[in-house]
Amino acid sequence: MSRQKVLIIDDEPSLCRCLKQWLEERGFECASAPDAERGFAYLQSHTVDIVTLDNKLPGISGVEMLARLAIEAPDAAVLMVTAEVDTRKAIHAMTLGALGYVIKPVRREDLFAQIDNALERRRLSIENRELTLRLQEKVRLQTAEIRAAHEETIYRLVKAVGYRDEETGDHVRRTGQYSELLAATIGWPAEQVEMIRLAAPMHDIGKIGIPDAILCKRGNLTAEEMSIMQHHTLIGGQMLEGSYSPVLQMARDIALTHHEQWDGSGYPRGLAGNAIPEAGRIVSIVDVFDALSHARVYRPAFKDADVEQMMWAGRGTKFDPQFLDDFMSLRPEMWAIASLTVHGRTDVADRRFDDLLPATRSLQPN
Description:
Sig_transdc_resp-reg_receiver, alpha/beta, HD/PDEase_dom, phosphoprotein, Response regulator
């Protein structure tokens, strides 16, 4: 078993020799330095278990020494050696990282009592740190597993809608990406940005309760069919209600409010302005953008320029004006996301924009 190493930093040669003799008789391997710089130079190339440190070295205070030792020898047990009997200074040294305090003239029994105590505290500190690191790694791995399982569950729920309506399956995946980018641009914290990436794809989960004859109908819906279609917001909210998961709580808000409009003309509750949760306002914008830029069973996709014109037309009426400004500042990134899945997309070049308006059910998708 290797011997424990001690570095003595003291400018009194006689004390250094005395301490070195006592410590070597006790089985320690010792080195000494007459000043701070040579002591730190030694620590650059050697690892030590204990540092005995004179509280008054030329050119540097004990406080400064402790601060440097915390960086350059963080695992060493530091004993302050001083001629001053000052309880306040001793306590202050302990708060700065010293594990012992020895008063000059140094008595052999006092030195070893302080060393034994400091080494035990050092051992416990190192063990506690290693245990903490192991626990943190275990928690990190378990959290990653839980997050992966959570995310898989979300996308399996979303697939339940996607299998019935292929365009919806593509649409919900893109919605998460748009929402993540817009939320980050607005200034959401990273944790919430990640949450909306997972929550936004569930905005249309309530469509699982809408009959196929309505969900997949080619052509405009009747007033009665539109009323049934609009119930997907309430169905989605009920499906996601009561969860303790922050992601599912956000998803519930989104499912309920992504068809609300800034001026209060949306559904299901006619909320207006800031009464609409921010997540719902974000998804309202990206949902419409994606719906207009991709084909639906009842119409082709609009041209890019027409999509942008229609989005601007909803500023301050259908959409939060500031959020829309932020969204439109990201047009290159948003169009890149839109192009990731191009199932069924058709640019319409031979029809006037005004002619296409009657073919849409509204600026808001169903």
